[in-house]
Amino acid sequence: MTLNPADLRDLQISIGDRLYIQVASWHLYLRDAGLAETLAMECNANLDLGASVAARKALEAVQVQLAGGTTRLPLARLIPSGQIFDLEDILDPYCR
What we know:
Layout (H helix, E strand, L loop, with lengths): L4 H14 L1 E4 L2 E4 H4 L2 H10 L5 H11 L1 E4 L4 E4 L6 H11 L5
Antiparallel strand pairs: 1-2, 3-4
Helix pairs in contact: 1-3, 1-5, 3-4, 4-5
């Protein structure tokens, strides 16, 4: 299953507006971090596996550069655990 460009853009906007990286008490939304498009494309590649699997696979696949690129971590390690469920909620309508 692959989303059409309009649906992919809607998915990107939903992800960017709702999900964030948490550092200490700071929230950096994925739209501001420039990660919403990459995450949306990774999710799109796995939608046929269902929302839960697509969310987890995409969060592990997206690598976030830290310290000028000297360190890379999967996005899954930078978001609060509740955000995984938020991503599943976002993806659910696209998996039907």
